[in-house]
Amino acid sequence: MGGYTILTKRRPRHERVSEDLLPTFRLTERDCALLKAINDCRALLTRQITTMFFSSQSRCYKRLEKLFHYGFVDRHFLPQVAHAPAASPIVYTITKLGASVLATTYGYTSDQFHFPTASILAWETLTHILAINDVYGAIYRASVDSGVSLVDWRDELSFRANPDYVWVVNSRGTSSKKPVLPDGYFHLKLPQGNARFFLEVDRGTEGMQQFKSQIQVYQEYILSGGYEAQFHSKSLRILVVVPTKTRLETVRRAIAEVGGGERYWITTFDQLEPTMVLTAPIWQKAREEGLFPIISP
User: Fold this and answer.
1) Are 152 and 18 in a shared domain?
2) Which of 245, 241, 288 is CA-nearest to residue 266?
3) Which of 27, 130, 198, 217 is deepest in the core (most CB within 10 A)?
């Protein structure tokens, strides 16, 4: 009975309990998938893990609590200016013990592990990673619930490891070599065929000239045949997620000004619900009025 009494006590958020206070625990298939997601995404919030794997945040937190206290994941806390420290959202990253599970279960090798580093946990980088993972989490859960196969997902890190380059001409007529670094790429296998996407997450923190430069890179990558050569497909839509409707209109104009057309679809972060992201008309095309779903009925 003593062991069950322990389970009623609140465990510390910031440090692991001693071995004699550990709750009963056994790794499940879902735990392995969860650890894989945390590693592959580099960092995930509790609410993002809930979206992907659980029906409620309380159930998610209880499971993550056990994974933390047994040493499979680490916790980090996002600072909250307007709230007490106890309200700080928890960010989860993989540990060496968690990585050993991935090696055993999925055959991961050392170059596939994404342990937390100072650069990953730096505020600007971490918030960008988490914004990308908001999109990924919604698409992951939507694909599971709708029976659509998420064949491939790659984040910016995989592109930085071995980038393609294009030559872009600026407004002064000078050519410069630019890497192709989308925030993400994913491939869906649909009943009607395959659909491939680049993801551009815009948090409203960069100027429009920088944004236009990224669109010019995409344009040249497509026109030069570089995209088709790398991905063996002509199919591509570029999804842009922005913070507000005002920013959406600004982004639409910027895309049009550099020659972007029907490939560019835009929505706001508040629309990224798993029940909506693929099948609801929440996406606005850069040069066409109306709202459209990624997957048509």
Assistant:
1) no
2) 241
3) 198
